[in-house]
Amino acid sequence: MTTQRPLHDLRLERIDGDAKLVAMISPCSFMYPGYGLQITVTLNGDDKHSLGDRKPMESATEAEVQALFDRVKTLPCKKCQAPTFDRNPAAIQTDYEGQCRKCINDAINSMMEAERQRFERELAVLKAEGKAKGFTHHVAAVIHLHHGDDYIYDFFTISDDAPSIERMIAKRGSVVTNDYRIEQL
Ligand SMILES: [Zn+2]
Where are the domains of the chain? Predict the structure, then answer.
């Protein structure tokens, strides 16, 4: 048990090209009995990567921590060349392999934005069709069920008469009938 105390404060550093790597033992290794040795490595104070070997914490040594740290490699992001972790491809099977965290976030954000725009376009087409059929309003209501998840119910109306809209919402079994947004077509 004499080796455990200093490991709390152990901090290893390494410069790897443009990357400054700092390794510390993950808090869970100390908090959970039987969790085993795991380190968390920070890259340039930002991106984090954890790696463990399940060796018992009770007998862990600084040399074992160093050996884990030595296994952590970096490579240039395949998009922007900034240093990023060379993550184990078997552990992380994504389309973003080899990209830094910023490029991954950028890619996810533009994918979500494209999805949102696609949704808006589809809704605009539906509204135009509804208007052509003689409807005057589009209603997006939140259906609140006694049991089960809330969901959005979209429909067209030929007036903005609140009582009749609330009746249509009630017919879906919603316990709340005034949680809706109405828009003129
Ligand atoms: Zn990048």
Answer: 4-104, 134-184
